[in-house]
């Protein structure tokens, strides 16, 4: 493994934050930093994992409790599930989804799919539960519905952020810029709540128009958005110090390297003698050994 890492000229290493990986003494990062023969590198906590942790800050337990009870009632029994799908089909509304999604705790952002289908089928679900003799008064409470709509809107934005961070051939500068852009959007969302225009909260706008006389907890929603922004800022604070390096990677000609110096010159000059030629030769030799050649 040591030979492999040396040959690859690692300049930064992303981990999931587990002690076995990020430990300063016995973790992988600590052991590599203690190795004087190993080239210098920049340890980075996995960006997608950090985004996942920040997203879990935003929770509405009283919403999730009711939604999951209803979804589990519909999906846990094959007979009830079949009856629910038939109930939706009998409505002859082809614009509606024909089912509700399961919720997976491990993939927490899957709640966006659950809430999305639940909100779309809100009226049919209410009728179906009444026919089954299951009482859920929350489905008729305006304030609960407002909280549900607000929760759905924000969760869908978080899922969009999560998807935009995934994919191949993305530089760390691209991922960081995506996170910073979303952090700035939260300020716009907060302003939208303050003015009550709801241009970026389509579900909340729909429910608020259905209950125009119900006072909305705008202050609470704004505090939730501010808390989410603080959580993201805390989780990704270390990436802000790397912005000069990101700017150089995105557009080297925009950086005055004469006056300010090259932001990544340290990693260029301190390569411990591992040239690209050696990397290519080592890779070729490794492939030949794997194929049985000498």
From TrEMBL:
Organism domain of life: Eukaryota
Name under which the protein is recorded: General transcription factor II-I repeat domain-containing protein 2-like
Family matches, as InterPro entries: RNaseH-like_sf
Organism this protein belongs to: Sipha flava
Lineage of origin: Eukaryota, Metazoa, Ecdysozoa, Arthropoda, Hexapoda
């Amino acid at each position: 493994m040591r030979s492999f890492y040396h040959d690859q000229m690692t300049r930064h290493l992303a981990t999931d934050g587990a002690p076995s990986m990020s430990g300063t003494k016995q973790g992988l990062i600590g052991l590599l930093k203690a190795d004087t023969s190993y080239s210098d590198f920049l340890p980075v906590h996995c960006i997608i994992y950090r985004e996942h942790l920040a997203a879990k800050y935003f929770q509405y337990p009283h919403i999730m409790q009711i939604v999951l009870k209803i979804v589990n009632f519909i999906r846990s029994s094959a007979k009830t599930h079949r009856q629910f799908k038939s109930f939706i089909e009998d409505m002859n509304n082809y614009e509606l989804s024909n089912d509700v999604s399961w919720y997976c705790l491990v993939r927490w952002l899957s709640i966006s799919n659950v809430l999305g289908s639940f909100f779309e089928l809100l009226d049919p679900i209410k009728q179906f539960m009444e026919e089954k003799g299951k009482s859920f008064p929350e489905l008729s409470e305006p304030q609960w519905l407002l909280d549900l709509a607000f929760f759905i809107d924000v969760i869908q934005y978080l899922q969009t952020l999560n998807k935009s961070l995934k994919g191949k051939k993305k530089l760390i500068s691209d991922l960081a810029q995506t996170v910073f852009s979303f952090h700035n959007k939260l300020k716009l969302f907060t302003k939208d709540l303050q003015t009550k225009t709801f241009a970026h909260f389509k579900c909340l706008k729909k429910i608020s128009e259905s209950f125009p006389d119900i006072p909305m907890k705008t202050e609470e929603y704004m505090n939730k958005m501010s808390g989410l922004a603080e959580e993201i800022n805390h989780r990704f604070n270390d990436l802000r110090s790397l912005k000069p390096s990101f700017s150089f990677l995105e557009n080297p000609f925009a950086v005055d390297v004469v006056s300010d110096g090259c932001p990544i010159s340290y990693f260029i000059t301190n390569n411990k003698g591992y040239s690209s030629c050696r990397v290519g030769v080592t890779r070729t030799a490794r492939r030949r050994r794997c194929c049985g050649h000498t």
